[in-house]
């Protein structure tokens, strides 16, 4: 891991330690391991995928612990999730960089994107409706290029 990436990870771990201390909770290596998995993830992960990764280092962790920790991290805005209805959620580390998602309804692939024009249009609509926009999340559902090719 590069020195810069290690420094970024340390910032997230420090934030976690601060939040846990403020809440009067015990700092645990399990929370730390889950945060590290999300930090190093290249994709959005299900709780089960996070569990499998953490289990490689900590065989005593339970799936329920992963779910509780993800709920806690999401309530503290350290992670965010995308709901797939009855199929559950996928999680990502909240890196503070706004982006939206295109989600394939066939394979579940998630494509992140940012579009200045779309952002401007959303702000314009909120202003027109006299709506104070605080934050937003846009998820577009469709079929990714790979799945379209498979269907041909």
Automatic annotation (TrEMBL):
Which residues are recorded as binding Zn(2+)?
104, 107, 144, 147
Report the principal subcellular site: cytoplasm
Q: Which InterPro entries match?
A: FUR (IPR002481), Fur_C (IPR043135), WH-like_DNA-bd_sf (IPR036388), WH_DNA-bd_sf (IPR036390)
Cofactor(s) required for function per UniProt: Mn(2+); Fe(2+); Zn(2+)
Q: Which one Pfam family would you cite for this protein?
A: FUR
The places in or outside the cell where this protein is found are:
Cytoplasm
State the superkingdom: Bacteria
Q: Which GO terms describe its cellular component?
A: cytosol
Tell whether Oxidoreductase is among the UniProt keywords: no
Q: Which GO terms describe its biological process?
A: negative regulation of DNA-templated transcription; negative regulation of siderophore biosynthetic process
How, per the record, is the cofactor bound? Binds 1 Mn(2+) or Fe(2+) ion per subunit.
Q: Which UniProt keywords apply?
A: Cytoplasm, DNA-binding, Iron, Metal-binding, Repressor, Transcription, Transcription regulation, Zinc
Fill in the subunit field for this protein.
Answer: Homodimer.
Q: What does this protein do?
A: Acts as a global negative controlling element, employing Fe(2+) as a cofactor to bind the operator of the repressed genes.
Q: What is this protein called?
A: Ferric uptake regulation protein
Q: Which organism is it from?
A: Nitratiruptor tergarcus DSM 16512
């Amino acid at each position: 891991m590069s020195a810069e990436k290690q420094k970024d990870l340390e910032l997230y771990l420090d934030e976690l330690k601060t939040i846990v201390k403020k809440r009067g909770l015990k700092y645990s290596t399990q929370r730390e391991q889950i945060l590290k998995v999300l930090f190093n993830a290249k994709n959005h992960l299900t709780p089960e995928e996070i569990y499998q990764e953490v289990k490689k280092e900590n065989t005593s962790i339970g799936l329920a612990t992963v779910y509780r920790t993800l709920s806690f991290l999401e309530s503290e805005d350290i992670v965010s999730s995308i709901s797939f209805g009855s199929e559950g959620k996928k999680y990502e580390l909240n890196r503070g960089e706004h982006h939206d998602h295109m989600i394939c309804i066939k394979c579940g692939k998630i494509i992140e994107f940012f579009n200045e024009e779309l952002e401007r249009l959303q702000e314009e609509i909120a202003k027109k409706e006299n709506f104070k926009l605080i934050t937003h999340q846009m998820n577009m559902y469709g079929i990714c290029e790979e799945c379209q090719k498979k269907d041909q």
